[in-house]
Every structure is written in C-alpha cells, then in structure tokens.
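Field log, afternoon session.

UNIT: design team B
ACTIVITY: writing a sequence onto a fixed backbone
BACKBONE:
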C-alpha cells in the first residue's frame, strides 16, 4: 500500500489517497484501488468515495501520470495529470500537479483541460519561465505518446484493469 499525495507548486497538499502497489519498475509504479477507496481533497475541503476500479501509473522520471477508472457498467475513463516527476519513498508518492490534464471518455479521444487554471496558477504561484516551457514540452510529449499509442497509452493497462476488476468482483462483466 502506498499513500499518494498530489501537491500544488507551493508544496501545499492538494489531494491524497492510498492504493495497492501492483508493479514497480525502473520506469514506473503501477497502483490499483478497488471500489470504496477514498480521496481527501484538501483544496476543496472534501472527502470523496469512489465506486470504480482504478489503475494509476506514476512515471518515475517524467512529469505525467495515467489513471484509468472502470465503472460497474463497464465504461472506462482515462485521466493524465501533467506535473513534475514524482518523489517516491517506500511508503509514499508525492507528485506536484501543474494544473493541465488530459481526459478521455472514449479510447483515444483525449482532450487537454484546465488551461485557464494553469494560466491563473502561473501568476498565483509565480511559475518560472523554464517551468512553463517544461509543462508545454511535457504536454507535447504526452500527445505524441497518445497519438502513437506508446507506453503507457498503448492499451496494456486497460486489459489489466479489467482483469483486476474481474478478480476483485467475480460478477463484474
């Protein structure tokens, strides 16, 4: 089990949750959480409980993540955070969230969201020019990976998530 903390650029806790470690390599850490997991959203002062199965991939050396959520009706949602490469310990993953996200509700139909939040936070947190350039370079890199179906956007995690859901919930379709 690892605790996951997403922070804003000023190191303030944005949100956190816990998930089970499924796989660790030199390149990424893959986490699984089943229905009933909770997410503490510190920025909103709220706690959410999710009823979906979820896989989360944290790239060790790159500034993006991939999360897949599988609902009980079989629909899947995809989410990718843009941020700084994570800091990892045996117990925790800390990821600085730099506002921009990719979302998809259909396979390979990604769209970039939260550009307005990114612009606001550039002023609020005083993002240096080099950080802003880094964010846009990361966005371009992630887009290329998505377009060319390169890891972790190659479909391999979708199959694994369905397998985990079927193991955890035998009546899952």
């Amino acid at each position: 089990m690892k605790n996951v903390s997403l922070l804003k650029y000023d190191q303030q806790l944005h949100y956190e949750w816990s998930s089970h470690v499924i796989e660790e390599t030199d390149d990424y850490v893959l986490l699984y959480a089943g229905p009933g997991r909770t997410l503490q959203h510190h920025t909103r002062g709220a706690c959410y409980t999710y009823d979906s199965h979820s896989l989360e991939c944290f790239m060790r050396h790159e500034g993006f993540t991939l999360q897949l959520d599988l609902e009980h009706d079989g629909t899947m949602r995809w989410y990718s955070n843009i941020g700084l490469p994570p800091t990892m310990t045996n117990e925790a993953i800390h990821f600085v969230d730099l506002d921009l996200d990719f979302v998809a509700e259909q396979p390979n139909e990604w769209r970039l969201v939260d550009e307005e939040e990114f612009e606001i936070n550039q002023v609020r947190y005083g993002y240096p020019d080099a950080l802003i350039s880094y964010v846009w370079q990361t966005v371009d890199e992630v887009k290329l990976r998505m377009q060319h179906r390169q890891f972790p956007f190659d479909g391999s995690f979708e199959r694994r998530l369905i397998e985990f859901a079927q193991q955890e919930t035998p009546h899952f379709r």
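LOG NOTE: The helical segments are 115-124, 129-147, 156-168.
NEXT ACTIVITY: expression trials, pending approval
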